[in-house]
Protein 1
Amino acid sequence: MTLHLSIMLWLPAAFALLGALLPGKLPGRIAILGSLLTLAYAVVYVVDFDTGKDGLQYLTDEAWIEALGINYKLGIDGLNLFLILLTALLWFGATLWANLKEWEHARTFFLWLGIGETAVLGALLAQDLALFVVFFDLMLVPFFFITVGWGGKDRVPAVTKLVIYTLVGSLLMLTAAVATGVLAAEGTGNPVDFDLSVIQASGLSEGSQKWIFLFFAAAFLVKMPAVPLHGWLPDGYSAMPLPALALFSGVLSKVAAYGFLRISLPLFPDAAADFQELMLILALVSILYGSVMAFSQTNARLILGYSSIAQLGFITLGIFAIEGTGAQGAILQSVNHGLVTLPAMFILALLAARAGGSEDIRDMGGIAFKAPVLAVFFVITTFALLAMPGSSNFVGEFLILLGVFKTQMAIAIIASIGVVLASVYALRLFIRAMHNRVGADVDSRDLSLADGVILVPVVLLIIAFGLYPQLALERGEKATAAVVAPARAILGEPTGNYGLAEEEAEAAAEEPAGAAPQIDPTTGQPIDPATGQTADPSAQGAPPAGGELIYVDPTSGQQVAPGTPGAIAIDPATGQPVEDPAAGAVNEVTP
Amino acid sequence: MSTVETFTWLALLLPLAGAVINGVGFRVWKGKTAGVIGTFFLFAAFACAVVAAIKLKSLPHEAQHATSVAWDYAATLGIDAQLSLLIDPLALYMTLVVTGVSALIHLYSVAYMTSDEGYVRFFAYLNFFVFSMLVLVLAGNFLILIVGWAFVGAASYMLISFWYRRTTATNAGIKAFVINVLGDVGLVLGTYFIFKGTGSLDFLTTFKEIEEGAAFATENDGDLVAGCLLLLVGAFAKSAQVPLHTWLPDAMEGPTPVSSLIHAATMVTAGVYLIARMWPLFEQAPAAANVGAIIGCATLFIAATIALTQTDLKRVIAYSTMSQIGYMVMAVCSGAYVAGLFHLMTHAFFKALLFMAAGSIIAAMANVQNLDKMGGFRRSMPFTYGCFIVGGLALSGIPPFSGFFSKDEILAYTAARGDWHVALAVIGYVAAFMTAVYTFRLIFRAFWGDPVKEAQELEAGHMAHGEHVNPANGEPEDTHVGFPGPEHHIAERAPEMKGAMGVLAVLATIAGVLQIPFVTHWVDTFLEPTFEGSFYFEDLHPSDSLTIAGMVIGASLGLAGIALAYRLWVQKPGTTAALIERFRPLYSLSFHKWWFDELIDAIIVRPAAWVGRVCDQQVERILINGVLTGGTTGLVKSASAAVRGVQSGFLRYYAAAFALGTVAVTFYFLVA
């Protein structure tokens, strides 16, 4: 079966356009159908996805603007597979939710919503840098219009702020993207080509990588947002209508995190390695500052808003561990956080409806008493939000912190304060809303059937995902390992997979001497036998100053005297076998 | 799947089934149905645990530890976590204690909670708690252990805040939860340090690596000590050891069966289980074990001193729990694993019993817990009184009650370590004396003396109905939540309560026979396969004379304590006032609970709130909104002034600037 990505990509926009031509309630219903079909497609991709395969699947590759080297290239791998599912799922949920309400100019509203989904899917699927930039900018436009048209009070200044922030970010990204394509082509002498794999293969000089990396980082960090680039968030969150906000916070922020993985790490590995500490510290500041702000707010939207700064901080932390476990955690956590954001925002709407329209937790209280079912789903969502062990969010956080622990132990330990603070702000929100004495204007009632249709399946999914996070992890494994490999090789660190290091060293030791090294089919670089990842050959072969090597007997694993026949030289700094100057013939690394 | 595995999984999943059935059908179950369902599933789980234990013990020694895997949980780049159980004698010992005591407390609650509006919710939570606790004790790797660890924390939070319209209950709940999360974080970081050396999250693999010297081959390896200390942080938070104990007394806001089950018999002993489970690590990191022993000893002493002066009936028992867990922690950190686990079991019996008896009094007092208002319940509640006496004698370590044997085993083994461990044992004996004093202070003040109004009414056949206020802070109470209601029960009148307490009273009396020095070694024998290869298990034994001396000293101190309590509160009731005046500073120290709450408030809570305010009011407003946003806005506005001349509107800015930028940049790179 061929599954054309273009069909899934353009489906939501096509249905939205169709809906825009129809009268009455039909546009909303058509939008539901469109997002449902997209969701079905996304589920099929997850089921059909070949876990054992390297590289991109379901590839679509056409030249788009040949003169500028821009391609219409789409593909799925472990990095975006579950984000696509998340996008489709959340859009379906939010579209259903939007249908519960009467909107003025419903046609236009649902048109923007559909275009938004296509734009996000486009950004996730794009395998061409220019195409990515186009979709990335396009995805913001519907949200500007939705906020202006249907937002709350003070929406105009809020959107102005948002536009200015993203405008600056977008311009920087645009500049950086064009520069990347041109400089990469200059280096090889080929014509300009924005295809990501072509750019990765050509590589950029370290100097250009640095400023380009920073430009991209600025755009992504604004979008997430990260401290201190979050100035638009308080106003933006307050002004956006809730179903749109759920998408903005649940999905769009993840596209930025995904950008780091898809673009920054593989294309600018030297810069990523150089700026690793800067990025980790920014992430750490986001975690702590976001958490502290979250427990100081009384507006429930802002509690969720600042908490998402903290959560995105964790995701950034995982990415810039530049290590497989952390990156896996980051992808998983992106999905988890999105999956929690939709029910959280939805519950927020339900709470406000019960507290006389107020979103301030001081006006709530005691709502649980007449709404036991709502309380149950709220408490599960709260526990997932604070990454309680047993939820998939915890697995994500565990992997992220483990990844950082391996590379920067101190940062992991400080970041874990954020875990404690999360329990404070999340539980505070729950208790102040649901428990304690009944608020003055509170008129509590339980979930309606329609509310249940939206809320219950998502919460059940959170539980199911908590029981089997492996579903996402095993599909992401290969792509994450590949995406961190270049920057990791530059850091010159061992794989850091404590668990596998020894087994792999043994396996490497058992390999017959002089065996031809494996070649990675995608990059054409030799695969490091100890890591299973492609490595920069220059980073590996050179032994350290003589006398520092350890010699090991491959059969017994015991350390032996230098020069012993059959012994393998191990660099104590990396734990990997290296070329042995003393007994070169025995353990030759054939180029 | 072998029989042992099948029955263990059943024991684990039955309470979950009970929770789900109660939770889903919460509108359906009327009357006592939910209680019966919950209790039934617990007794079934206990039966399965018994079968599993018998089958396991019929296997050869080396076959008595096995990992049973359900599926891959998080097995990806570099980690190997599966959804797995480790089934061995220690795990099943804990399963037996947990399911057995829980089943009885469920039975008690069937009657005790009858008039509560949240009856079904209560049993759903209580079943869920037992499931969580079983996940904790049966976990086969660190990740699943952490899951169980956090689940019991969550269940504990929900039950502490069970009467959620009381602000005192919700405050106590969030306090308990946050301190427990702190413990979870300790556990996670500890796991990282250990994982760093062993490369595995699986328990059996980890232990094997350490025993074979493949990981952490040198004693007191830095990473291992750090890992073990962080595990201790987790253990201390859960087991209410100093200074992470402040949540436990507040947790008494929960209904009394909760205090009995979670905050006395089971959850709070999780730390003891954890340390015993991790013995191969702690034996390789004696520095960390020593820290644990000292903290345990400090806790047992501090808590005992506090218990002497508190006036809230349940809080006295809570401090006593803290103190007794201090004994257990000291034991397992000193290598006396079996003694610690034995005390865990006997303590579960007599402490659950004491709380149940306290619950009976509290119901008779219409929810008032203040000792000053009680007195003379001896005649009106003879059964409760009898149970309190049995529990009190066991807690005070009077032979032949169970607590006598288990506590003396701990102290004898600790003393047998020699060196400075002897000092720990001496402090343990001093605290044992105080234990007898505060226990019998409770008994004499609640049951002896002139009957108070409630006791008189009870004798006349009426039950007291108090005011609709929260007794803790005088807040007016919603009638639906948090009040015992028109129909409430005391042990004398409810057969379910009487039955549960009767069984526990018998167990609290006779459980000592399992492990009588020189006579029986049943707990030793049962747990042997788990501790095979342990240096202390095999080689640490107190001499005969030490054992006998310990028993004599322990029994004498217990009796002396009771005598002192009798003199102070029965013979010469006025003396305490004079003593308080004379030892005012010591009394304040005890009465204000060594100022731990104030200290934590001053160094953590208030600074954190201050940081929050500064971030919110200064950083966010001035730096982020003023300088950064304002600056950028100004910059963009001036830069686009030219464009604005043509058209206005912010989206046009955006589009125009975007287009302009694109053209300029593209032009630059393509042409230049």
Protein 2
Amino acid sequence: MNRVFEVSELNARIRDRLVTDGRLCDLWARGELSDVVNHRSGHRYFTLRDKESRISCVLFRNHGRSLRFDLKDGLNVLVFGDLEFYRPRGQVQILVRAVRLDSGIGSKHQELEMLKKKLAAEGLFDQDRKRRLPPYPRRIGVVTSPDGAALRDVLRVLGPYPAKIVLSPAQVQGDSASESIAAAIRDLRGKVDVTIVCRGGGSAEDLWPFNTEMVARAVSQSDSPVVTAVGHETDVTLVDFVADERAPTPSAAAELVRPDLSLIREDLIKTEGRMARALAASLERRQDRLVYLEKRLSGRMMKGLLREQRQRLDRASEHLVSAMWQRWKQLHADLVTKEGRLSSVSPLATLFRGYTMVRSEEGLIARAADARLGEEVEVVFQDGKLVCRVMAREVRG
Amino acid sequence: MDSMDDGLDLESAFEELEQIVQVLEEGNLSLEESLEVFEQGVSLVRVCNASLDRAEQRIECLTGGLPSDING
């Protein structure tokens, strides 16, 4: 039978093994802070962890005085100290002598917060900057990795919607990912009506390239509205704030961008119906009017019209005849008057009153002096004439 | 920009349709004009439907090649 240890004996043995391992002294360890407890005594207890493991840590008061920031859950730090085995509990822990913010993701978080404030102050997150997505995009840009599942999800959802899909490939992970994503967004300038920027799920570090100013600015400067879907629903990156729409997943982004085909078809049917009804209504209106006009154009009405015209003609011709008759009477009366006036001035009329007229061969003898002695003259009466000879002449004066 | 390549512009097709319907509903057109406009509308609807019917995914990659499992 193997040897049986008492617990304290066992723990003592473990401790002996650990403290004699030089590699476990003066060590640096990197991880995220959690379960931070600031004890009344001034000692601080916390857990350092990464994705897979955790280890307890203690920072005693005397070492904690030089700390220049508050320990908070979620901070990524580097701790310096020695590994210790705490015998009473059989627990391994780090006796921490110094804590530094991890130059990696930890300080990145602080930088991100500052960057957020800066961009917010510039108005890049303002709601009134958000553009409406086009209802029927003809060209849909997709910025993502050509090899990722996100692209396949997007393509599957877009399906047979009649639009051109323009893939602008980007490296979505790694050192130059930010540059690559920003460039891919810029490359779509003038080529698409809407842009999807997406990436499948990953660790916070994997998604980090979407937290950079470069990518945020590329999104804000995009000439087409941008829908972002980075990581899973719970992941929020800087680009989501700048984007015109944020979708929880790449598939959801595609849903936002693509109009519902069945709705389009419904719309078309409705439109067709409206046109047909409008045309039918306009035909009906015309028909009604035709019927109305037809009624008014009846035969009786035509006869009445004819009779009226005939009467007008009759009246006109009567008028014409009577006018002519009036005119004739007037002219006749004129003639009679003129005749009377003419005869009253005729010399012959004087003869009727008993006067006579004396004429020689040379004409009328109006004065005694005009007559020659012995000359033959005619004395004209109303009913004839006498031929006389001038026997004597007496001229007065 | 090549409009054939980019497919039917559904948005402007719908705008045009809406205008046609409005003009028809106002009813100020002559009968002949109404019929003409109506026919325009119906053929536009037909074009839209046909474009939806035969729509297939057309993918282009800005840098050239697409992964083999994606048909461009």
